[in-house]
What does this fold into?
Amino acid sequence: MCGVFGWVSWDKPLSPDELSQAKVALGSLAHRGPDHCEDWHEGGVYLGHQRLKIIDLSNEANQPFADPQDRYRLIFNGEIYNYRELRRELEQVGYTFRTSSDTEVLLFAIDHWGDDALLRFDGMFAGALFDRRTQRHLIFRDPLGQKPLYYFVFDGGLLYASELRALLVLKRFHWRLDPEAFGRYVLNAYFALEDTPVAGIRKLLPGHRLIARRGGEIVIERYWNSIPGDGLLDIGEDDAVAEFSRLMNQSCERVMRSDVPYGVFLSGGIDSSLVADFCHQTNPDIRCFSVAMGERDFDESPKADQVARHLGIGHHQTFMMDRQSVLTAMDGVFGTIDEPHGDPGFINTYFLAQSCRPHLTAAIAGDGGDELFAGYLPFAGLRPAPLIGSLPGPLLSLVKSLSRLLPASDTYLGLRFLAESYLQGFPGGSAARFALWLASISPEELSEICRHQDRGFFARSALPGTVLSPFSAIMEPAEGKAAIERFLYFYQKVFLPEFVCAHTDRAAMQFGLEVRAPFLSPSIIEFANRLPSSLKMRGRTLKWLLRETAIQRGLPRSIATQRKQGFTFPVARWLKSAMRERMDDLLAPEEWSADGLVEPNVVTAYKDDHLANRRNSYRLLYNLMVFRAWRRRFPQVSSI
It folds into this structure.
């Protein structure tokens, strides 16, 4: 829901030219909020809002929203799912409402409970509240970063926006690439944590708030955190299933609060199947939407059909994503993306959102189940990790060399691909290992690609100034926890916000489609993080509690016991065929020479090895393709 843009000048009113530029910036977010555009400015403060109407469709609920005393102005992006419960509490202490919106509830909640009202919200949200009396700005982002927020502090003021593009269109500022952030992007396939491709522009971290006061004083602080393993529950299996079911039922009921049509994204995986089941329990008329792929090893549509039939879903629509559909969606993503994101699943989500948008305005998805309940395959690597990590350097090098003798494959999660991905996590501490297990390449390989960087940047130590240092810092609160708890924390703080939530938000909001994730209710997050790890991972069984819940609720056993399948397409295979022309174009050496970011000859060697089936390097190649497409869209960002 919606897009926000704010411009604050500390010591002088915004000029007519600056206000004009601000309106252009706000207009760049129109796709996020196609239903209404409005702004407000006073002195050195500009607030703009593009609205996607979901709850209370009246104009009274438009933003920037003011309180009756005209003290505050509020702009925010997202939804507060428990707004009805909060409204009743506020009415009991004397607040009178003129709308039925969650916007008014959010404003009154902060007025009544202060900044800690953020802890009471069950939802996804990012925005700002300006206090005209004190000239104080409260800028905030939800606990797991479902909604984005970028900011830029400069000499004389502050900018913030829902998307990077709204800042980059401002002609007053000179933007340049951040080479260290680029290096981390090539490694990770996304700009993690505070990183963006542009020097000086940062992301407000999930669960954080930024407080800006008159004169330019800025304080950024964490207001929410949940650490796996803290306050462990003494709970049995059946009670755990029952409590999870209670919380999930509550969350699904809340995310279906809407004044516009909604439905479920049903992949046929465990998480989306449980979401569909709980939503159907509350609303038997719930509609479900799925994607079918022409490549059998990537197609989950038979499972989605099975679940829909089992639940008795009356409206289940499947959209066929063939090669041409993928290429069209890819061109759409490359032509609109404002921050590079190397997840091929972005393309699938973009296609599904575009296909569903004529039928609904809000969708419900299964995002978060894997990060909360240990559903990803790398969790299985935790047990042998101490043994592999203890190998002497020469022996570890030998093992890595032997893994490269395995035949290369472009099938989904081929054996050599898995072996190399796992082994590149060694040597290194846990924070470095977690990051490298999910990385596209190793730091040593990155050093050959990005030779412009100082050699020390590529150290595996994760010390300040190295490619892995942000991950070490973010993991500090989980120090001393068990390996599975630390890995869950990593997934929740890094991968979930900036890989999963980022592509879901950006792909869907390109079409003005809101996507809600019932797994990401704070009550479910906190419950999951207090569960003993034996209820998440049992032997080789990942995501045990969700599988057991599915079985007890009567879902087909084949659904409950299935292996994790990513929502993606055969990009490794298609780089050799359907995507070859786009790859050759975007990775042409002359494209990269001017920026000095990579060694073109090294990139060409990786491409040649991939085409010759000597190594599956699709992640690196695709990351670079996406970045180059972004670079073409924003030439105003200067080279290093």
About this structure: The CA atoms of residues 328 and 351 lie 9 Å apart. The chain has a mean pLDDT of 94. The chain is about 40% helix and 15% strand. The two ends are 35 Å apart (CA to CA).
